[in-house]
Amino acid sequence: MGQCPASRSQDAPRVSDSAPAPRQLDDSLKDAVRQTYAQLQANTPGFKVRRAQSQMIGAVSRALGNSGGVAVVEAPTGVGKSLGYLTAGVPIALASKKTLVISTGTVALQGQLFERDIPNFLKATGLEASVALAKGRTRYLCTRNAAEVQGEGGQEGLFGDEPALFDRPLAPVEIDVATRLTEAWMAGSWDGDLDNAPEAITPNLRATITTPASGCAGRRCAYAANCPVLRARTKVREAQIVVTNHALLLSALNLGDLDAGQPLLAPPGDMLLVLDEGHHIGNVAIGQGAASLALDAMGKRSNRLQVLINAAYRAVDKDTISNQHPNEAIELAARVSKLLKAFRDQVAMGWQPSDETLEPQWRAPEGRLPEAWMPAVHELAEDTRALYNWFHAATSLVAKGKDKDGADAGREKLQRNLGMASEQVQAMHELWSVWKREDAEGAPPMARWITQDRDGDFILHGSPISAAQVLRKLMWDSVDSVVMTSATLTGGGGFQHLAIDNGIPEDAEMIALDSPFDLANQAQLIVPKFPVAPDDRQRHPIEVANYLEKELDWDKGSMVLFTSRWKMEKVASLLPSRRRERVLVQGETAKQKMIDEHLRRTAAGEGSVLFGLNSFGEGLDLPGEACTTVVITQVPFAVPTDPQTATLGEWMERRGHNAFNLIAIPHALRTLTQFAGRLIRTNDDHGRVIILDSRLLTRRYGQRIIDALPPFKRVIG
């Protein structure tokens, strides 16, 4: 914030090197889009022509049909976003021989697109295109790890004789699950995707039977021929339409992030990108630039690296690796361990968290660390860089070498352990680099802070506070063309804040479409004179429970949304038993199981109420009687103590801006609009949205928020 949206970089062309000239939306592409739309109408039962959807198709066509095109489309519920961007994106991608990459903010939408929306679209339009789902490695079964579990009953430690990587040894029942999963994969009855696993998987088992990139031997692995990850990646590279998520997208776009020497999704210059649920991309980008380090835990690991270092020198039979002799590499690891311990002592001298604090946290004002810490920070940044370079070089040498006496399994295991150690050292170096880096003058600083976990370990953190620079580098200046869409992008104040936050190019086309529903007659927005404000921790849950008991229609389907788990569970506990038995509380059982039970009840004419947090307020489709009332217990302002938000606020205030108006209110409006969007899903839906937050009637910003919400009939006070 406080900066202008970026124009596209002139020295970073957004077309692939193989393209003879920038693409243009010519008549043949326009005809292809029109024909696709005509086929969609003709072959989709009950298809309704919607003006807003037609406008969206036009905007998407202009963006994806031209090299360097960018469109930002706010499309409320009912517009038909997925059909809108598929109608334009698929024929343009096929004609241009580009890859259409659709990235989502949630796993639920990713699955819906891949399993339902895209197959139905292709069937209706008659278009032929290969489609693949792109997920991270740790969402797939690692057949090598699963075999080791079955053969050894557990996972060997990272450094030979050291304790296991995971929290605890696997229980016999977990080993049995791993066996059945492997059998299902080998029999072809399951694709190895753990999100669709035929067995319940504990977190400990999941960690054991998956492998991150750093621990994967790739084609050298003895199990490569039967690897779910490699098979899925091959499909992704060959696909014309790829469905992925924002985190994997940005990881794939990151410089040097290749998979087996090839781009994971598609070369950026050959990618037509659609960001569905685009309001999430900024937070994901910030997360991509973040780093963290547990001081005590990493200090112990660094001190144990000598076992692995010695093994690497023996395996490659070389005097030096990364220009270091064995004793020099061992001394480097020992020095890092000592420096980490010394820095831990230095932090403890300056910060002593109270025993009564539930989540201890220290934050550097405006991201500026104490000068006394900087010599150690610089030294750790340099030494961890050297240590990472050594592990990177050692991993590469071991991977290229040949085993003596054909002991491939031993070399493969060493390569895997070196890779995993390399990933840990890289994460450590990234944290010290973030802490060492000088913030550019006039640009938002990095947030830097420390937390303490239950075991007393200090966790160091560093993170960008603005997504703009990350997205300019990874996306706007490299991807051929981009469409960002969501039901909530403007936050009630136009696109300015979104553009600044995300570094959107100045020449982007930005449109906010009208809802196709008659919202003024289909729904009410009710803001009652609530007797207590949400910040009254004791009384607010009591009054919320009283209001729900008296005012909710308990014989129909309703949803009550909270901003904290504690308050949600407290309100549930305060309800009379005859009401409580109709309430399904998030966390008491699996989310999908809750939703299925809610739909069963409401379909049978029974009353049912969902109590949920933010994840229930977005993407959940409960049409008709399944949801006739949405209660929002308070305005979902960002937590003011959040380190990124607090640092950004300080920076903006120092520059003369009102951080609350520019950060808190747009964020709250986007979230509130998502919450309110759970109510009206079809032309036949009716109901009410109730906000139990007295601040909307007593604070100056209240009317601004009320005015910016969807145009339901107002019942205020």
UniProtKB/TrEMBL annotation:
The keyword Cytoplasm does not apply. It catalyses: ATP + H2O = ADP + phosphate + H(+). SMART domains: HELICc2. It is an enzyme of class 5 (isomerase). The keyword Metal-binding applies. Keywords: 4Fe-4S, ATP-binding, DNA-binding, Helicase, Hydrolase, Iron, Iron-sulfur, Isomerase, Metal-binding, Nucleotide-binding. Its cofactor is [4Fe-4S] cluster. Binds 1 [4Fe-4S] cluster. InterPro entries: ATP-dep_Helicase_C, DinG/Rad3-like, DinG_proteobact, Helic_SF1/SF2_ATP-bd_DinG/Rad3, P-loop_NTPase. One of its GO terms (molecular function) is DNA binding. GO terms for biological process: DNA repair; SOS response. Residues 1-10 have a biased composition (Polar residues). It comes from the Bacteria. [4Fe-4S] cluster binds at residues 142, 216, 221, 227. Its EC number is 5.6.2.3. Residues 39-327 form the Helicase ATP-binding domain. Residues 1-24 are annotated as: Disordered. DNA-dependent ATPase and 5'-3' DNA helicase. Unwinds D-loops, R-loops, forked DNA and G-quadruplex DNA. HAMAP family: DinG_proteobact. Belongs to the helicase family. DinG subfamily. Type 1 sub-subfamily. This is ATP-dependent DNA helicase DinG. It comes from Stenotrophomonas ginsengisoli.
